Amino acid sequence: MQPQSGEALQAVAGELHAIGQRLTHLAVLLQQETPSPHLAEPGQAPEPPRPVEAEPHPAQPAPQRRKFGARWEPSRVLAWGGAGVTLLGVVFLLVLAAQQGWLGPGLRVGGGAVLGVVLIASGWWLHARTPRSAGFALAATGFAALYLDAVAATSLYGYLPVSGGLGAGLVVAVAGLLLADRWRAQPLAVGVVLGCALCAPLITGAPTSLLVGFLVLLQVAAAPVQLRRGWRVLAVAAAVPTVLAALAADLWAMVLPGTGVVAAVVLASAVGVAIALVTAFLLPERAGTAAGLVVSAPAPALLAAPLLERSAAGALAAGVAVVLAAIWAVGWFVRPVRDLLAKRFTAASGAVAAVAALQATMTAVDASAWAAALLVEALLLTVGAHLLRTPGPLLGAVCYAVLGTSAALRTDTPVSALLTHVSGQRMPGVLVGALIALVAIGIPVTAVRVGKLRELPGSAPLWSLSGLVVLYGTASATMAACLLVRDDRTGFLTGHILITLCWVVAAIVLLLRGVRVAHLRIAGMVLLPVALAKLLLFDLATLDGLARVVAFLCAGLILLAAGARYTRALSRENARS
User: Fold this and answer.
1) What angle, rounded to 10 degrees, do the helices at 261-282 and 310-333 form?
2) Averaged pLDDT for residues 30-51
3) How far apart are CA 476 and CA 556, in angstroms?
4) Confidence of residue 356 (pLDDT cuts 50, 70, 90)
5) DSSP code of 285?
6) Residue 358 has what pLDDT?
7) What is the CB neighbour count within 10 angstroms for residue 213?
8) How far apart are CA 407 and CA 500, in angstroms?
9) What residue spans carry the region label Disordered (predicted)?
10) Which residues, in sequence order, are bridge partners of residue 54?
């Protein structure tokens, strides 16, 4: 005879509970048989036992770390393995029973709650006698069972409204973490958080806003304890599931639009940034953890942009950029805050602010204006790096400049515009070409100021690349300006004449200024052959009639005058030396 569905469920739950009890019993036996590291030698008074898993108070000196192999001793493996098996049993009780219609919803929720309370009481009792992993595992499993019970009562059965379910979950999480704080046991805290975070998606079934809300509660509940104890692993265990669930909710909502997802992920990002900021203030020795939180927390909010209209998405990204830029500015300019915040955290905030500003720019601004907007931002960052003498904004300026120049090559200043005459609006070309040249000059000059480019031999490729970009930007701006005045072949030829003469004049200026400065003289010696090569290879083939005559005569006369001037300058310099 086949067993009824209710009997099958009871049999499965009973077997899982029995397995957990056997594993816990084996762990206790192993702990009792393991010799204590504090046994006194003959003739000495025995030392009182100390909790192995207890974390020291931050004010006390940290004991020597145990060897790695001790973390995998049989008692720990059995205890936490039993915790995992028991939690899976709770999930089966709550989910499979709902799918198959086994028992009643009230019995499912009530059974999970009773099991959670029994496990917590067992963990308390065991910790009072043998303060080892078994007690932590039992207590963590009990609190996770109660938390999952609240999730199921809210998402599966509708017994609790959303606010009531979140409130119940918060009470359970806070209770578990307070117990971990009292026992000074980071494994218990991590077990509570990870047990809830890893099993909650099995109950909700999809990365919904409700799941994100329950995981945000775990991060909020864990924040006071991890700040009080300085537990880095707890901070990561509470933050990573929240970020991953929020990202998954963004992707899920792109496929199946749902309500409340954007609000949930924005809340998760805000909570993450706030916890990162508080961690950076209160635990400066955990600067790496705070920096990791402030980098990862805004990601879900930025990824939610496709779920919104264009204006709202741009405003959301701009809001993230403003908040993080404000954190960076306060951490940089306000001296009392600067002394408290680690430079790593401040730099991470500024970097994420630059990424958010880039997204806001490319979301709110039309694609035809991307090049100008990005180059303006690159120029502003360059000026900021020059004034502050710090490499962080300069790195952002380089990224913006590369993206802006790439966009300009496709829209405002294509290479084809310098090779053939094409009618069209030229004002954007003038602006973008001038911005390209300014940024290409400003970035290496600022790099020298902040100490990133000191010796010419080691940075010659960068200077050469910058020089090529300057030549391209000035040429594009000159051609666009000439065509703006006269949009025909005459304007096109005039533009090329002016480009060649400008390059020749720039090379001569560099040579004259380079009488005393070596790298300027080298730049002039490189630019002059480039200008002459354009004159002989391109202008000779492209220009015709009077344009060719004017180009060659003007270039020759300028070179003759410059040669005489350079000779006199060099003679005066030699006489001084």
Assistant:
1) 0
2) 44
3) 24
4) very high
5) G
6) 94
7) 22
8) 25
9) 34-67
10) 185
Which of the 8 DSSP states describes residue 3? P
Quote the pLDDT of residue 66: 45
For residue 269, the tally of other CB atoms under 10 A from its CB is 26
Quote the CA–CA distance of 120 and 123 in Å, as a whole number.
Answer: 5
Q: Are 176 and 129 in contact (CB under 8 A)?
A: no
> Hey, what's the torsion of the CAs at 102, 107, 108, 111, to 10 degrees?
-130
pLDDT for the residue numbered 31: 53
DSSP string, 166-223: HHHHHHHHHHHHHHHHHHTBHHHHHHHHHHHHHHHHHHH-S--HHHHHHHHHHHHHHH
* Residues whose CB is less than 8 angstroms from the CB of residue 128 and which lie 6 or more positions away in sequence, other chains included: none
Name residue 253's amino acid.
A
Centroid of chain to Cα 479 = 41
Q: Which two tokens stand for residue 305?
A: 């942009």
Residue 401 near residue 377 (C-beta atoms within 8 A):
no
What gap in Å lies between CA 142 and CA 448, rounded to an integer?
61
Query: Using CA atoms, how far apart are residues 542 and 482, in angstroms rounded to an integer?
Result: 17
What tokens appear for 67 in the block? 């060897």
Q: What is the reported pTM?
A: 0.74
Which one-letter amino acid corresponds to residue 390?
Answer: T
DSSP state of 257: -
Closest CA to 407 of 367, 378, 440: 367
Return contacts of 255-258, CB within 8 angstroms, 24+ apart: 257/307, 258/208, 258/209
Classified as helix, coil or strand, 453 is coil
CA 128 to CA 564: how far, in whole Å?
Answer: 97
Q: Which residue has the tokens 């991590």?
A: 190
Q: Which tens digits make up the pLDDT trace of 530-548? A: 877 877 777 777 776 677 7
Q: How many CB atoms lie within 10 A of CB 287?
A: 18
Query: Could you give the 3-state DSSP secondary structure of residue 54?
Result: strand
- Pairwise CA distance, residues 382 & 442, whole Å: 7
Residue 231 Cα distances to 103, 124, 187, 227, angstroms: 42, 22, 10, 7
